[in-house]
Write a structure and sequence with these properties.
Elements lengths: L1 H9 L6 E2 L1 E3 L2 H10 L4 E3 L1 H7 L10 H14 L4 E4 L8 H14 L3 E5 L1 E4 L2 E4 L2 H18 L4 E5 L10 H15 L3 E3 L6 H9 L5 E4 L7 H7 L3 E3 L3 H20 L8
Parallel strand pairs: 1-11, 2-3, 3-4, 4-5, 5-8, 8-9, 9-10, 10-11
Antiparallel strand pairs: 6-7
Helix pairs in contact: 2-4, 4-5, 5-6, 6-7
Length: about 260
């Protein structure tokens, strides 16, 4: 319970906190050693690690195995990306959240989109809002302050009016009981400011090359910063470089530099 409260407090500081996005026990340990106050398990990174494409292609049991190892490997709060909940019914989503609670997770990311035949599409606002409201009701019954971060994929799915749709959904999700809001690919400082002004919920910004600097995000009022699968991608990019060097050049020095 203390980790859940610690995680919640991180969202109300004077400065945005950077979430260490990880994909296994070792990466989580490295993040903790570096000084991160909390880590978030990247669903995308785990999927790729296990040979799947992102979008609930792995089983929830496979995700749980990784989550369990991460939680047992660090002393800081752990948040878990559960994509769309690994179930289209509220009962199944809450069952999965209950399993994460028992493992000691501090919070989740859950998104308002689903992937079908490789294409991501938004779930109807009313339909997803019922899920959010049902999650909050379940957590209230369990008397847990579990942090529910809602990811809205208005920009990811290239909605015709992404900002307007984001503002509408954020308001609805806040009223339904969300604890935080996450808008991937939102990077324009004016739009970030508009989203922040529209809600009392802490905003999570996802890092991209064009994302404003840390000091700018602080001035705008951003409370949480995450990097998704970026560190994972960089690490495997380096591994790819070493493998190619080893098999092509037949020289071994790069392995130890």
């Amino acid at each position: 319970m203390s980790k859940i409260n610690d995680f919640r407090k991180l969202h109300s500081g004077d400065e945005p906190f950077i979430l260490g996005n990880v994909w296994d026990a070792k990466s989580a340990q490295l993040a903790e050693k570096a000084g991160f106050k909390a880590v978030g398990i990247s669903g995308h990174a785990i999927a790729e690690n296990l040979g799947y494409k992102d979008g609930e292609n792995m089983s929830f049991e496979e995700l749980l195995f990784v989550v369990n190892r991460v939680i047992k490997s660090v002393s800081i709060p752990v948040s878990v990306d559960i994509d769309g909940g690994y179930g289209r019914s509220l009962g199944k989503v809450n069952e999965h959240i209950g399993q994460l609670l028992k493992m000691g997770a501090a919070g989740i990311n859950i998104e308002d989109s689903v992937v079908k035949e490789g294409k991501r599409s938004l779930v109807e606002t009313e339909k997803f809002t019922k899920i959010v409201r049902g999650i909050r009701s379940f957590l209230s019954e369990q008397k847990f302050a579990f942090f529910v971060n809602i990811r809205t994929d208005t920009y990811v799915t290239k909605h015709l009016q992404p900002l307007q749709e984001t503002l509408k959904r954020v308001k609805t999700y806040e009223e339904a009981g969300a604890d935080g809001i996450f808008v991937p690919l939102l990077s324009d400082d004016k739009e970030i400011k508009m989203v922040i002004k529209s809600t009392k919920l802490p905003l999570n910004v996802y890092l991209q090359p064009e994302t404003p600097s840390y000091s700018q995000l602080k001035q705008l009022g951003v409370k949480r910063i995450s990097s998704g699968a970026a560190v994972h991608a960089q690490s495997y990019g380096k591994a790819n470089e070493l493998y190619i060097s080893l098999i092509t050049d037949k020289r071994f020095g790069k392995l130890f530099n």
